[in-house]
């Protein structure tokens, strides 16, 4: 009760300015992303979620904070985001409902990305003592390769790190990293469009890349933006060109469970959802997942870790996987 009135006053004071900040952020996003054709909007969206996680204490991500505060991603205003987050936290204090600082294990859709971030963080940390290389496919503005545990392991064990992404988004990321003042000397940036060129071919031009080394592939937030052909090639290449102990971590959606309006919205957004792991009748979904991996990996890979999205108790509409080359 004691805290109710100051919180309410704080929320009332922040509401108009947060409304302006939201409008400003929306306009900035549309103007800038249209002015930079080819940049991945969804990659920027994921970065804002990483920043939100950091700002609300859900998950530390100093690199995301530095990326956004660098000012180089011109469609994002750190100040506007800070105001919106402050208003969200004030609203939480008034109502007692979580709005922005949603716990990872809650069933709110706001927890989907934090859950995904946590899964991939753990999936990689489990491998840091054994792998020789990390390849991030479709890296966007991911901050994994700047995480202290990854940087330390890379230094200690001489793990080579490669970020592969669409050339336009990657160029912006390189500028963002430079402006953030972060050290990226442990990362090799490799531009590649997965629909036009083989990523293995692109990587093979890098002096430090070893095609026969035990590798951790992170393919986060990418699979569903690719055609089935590119998805199949990626899984098959990991399975057939890399040694046992190599793993591939990725997320998927069950698009057969999505409303058509959502698929249309993504099309309008410019990044349509193209690939899915769909329900197969008379089959347990775990079997469907196993078959999906097995069929594309010539039976060489098996799932070793898995989680599914269960939000609003609507049932499983996607999830996260780590699959190992046996
Ligand atoms: C939703 S973002 C995810 C970014 C990042 N992995 C993360 O989790 O923050 C999708 C990423 O896939 C990349 N991508 C999509 N289609 C691609 C393609 N055909 N070739 C290369 N990269 C692609 C985009 O450039 C973008 O960085």
UniProtKB/TrEMBL annotation:
InterPro entries: Ppm1/Ppm2/Tcmp, SAM-dependent_MTases_sf, SAM_mthyl_Trfase_ML2640-like. Keywords: Membrane, Methyltransferase, Transferase, Transmembrane, Transmembrane helix. One of its GO terms (molecular function) is methyltransferase activity. Pfam families: LCM. One of its GO terms (biological process) is methylation. The chain crosses the membrane at residues 12-32. Belongs to the UPF0677 family. NCBIfam families: mthyl_TIGR00027. This is S-adenosyl-L-methionine-dependent methyltransferase. It comes from Sphaeroforma arctica JP610.
């Amino acid at each position: 009760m004691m805290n109710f009135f100051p919180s309410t006053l704080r929320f009332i004071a922040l509401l108009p300015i947060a409304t302006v900040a939201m409008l400003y952020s929306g306009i900035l996003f549309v103007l800038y992303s249209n002015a930079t054709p080819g940049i991945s909007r969804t990659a920027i969206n994921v970065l804002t979620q990483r920043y939100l996680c950091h700002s609300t204490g859900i998950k530390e991500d100093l690199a995301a904070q530095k990326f956004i505060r660098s000012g180089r991603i011109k469609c994002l205003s750190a100040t506007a985001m800070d105001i919106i987050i402050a208003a969200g936290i004030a609203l939480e204090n008034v109502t007692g409902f979580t709005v922005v600082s949603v716990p990872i294990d809650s069933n709110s859709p706001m927890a989907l990305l934090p859950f995904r971030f946590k899964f991939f963080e753990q999936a990689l940390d489990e491998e840091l003592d054994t792998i020789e290389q990390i390849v991030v496919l479709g890296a966007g503005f991911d901050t994994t390769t700047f995480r202290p545990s990854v940087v330390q392991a890379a230094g200690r064990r001489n793990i080579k790190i490669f970020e592969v992404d669409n050339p336009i988004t990657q160029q912006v990321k390189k500028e963002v990293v430079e402006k953030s003042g972060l050290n990226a000397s442990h990362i090799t940036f490799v531009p590649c469009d997965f629909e036009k060129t083989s990523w293995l071919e692109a990587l093979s031009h890098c002096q430090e890349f070893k095609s026969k080394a035990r590798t951790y592939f992170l393919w986060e937030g990418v699979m569903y933006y690719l055609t089935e052909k590119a998805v199949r090639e990626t899984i098959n290449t990991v399975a057939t060109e890399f040694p046992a102990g190599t793993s591939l971590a990725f997320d998927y959606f069950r698009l057969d469970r999505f409303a058509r309006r959502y698929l249309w919205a993504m099309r309008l957004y410019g990044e349509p959802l193209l690939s899915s792991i769909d329900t197969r009748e008379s089959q347990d979904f775990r079997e469907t997942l196993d078959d999906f991996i097995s069929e594309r990996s010539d039976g060489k890979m098996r799932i070793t870790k898995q989680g599914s999205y269960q939000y609003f108790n609507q049932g499983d509409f996607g999830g996260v996987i780590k699959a190992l080359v046996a």
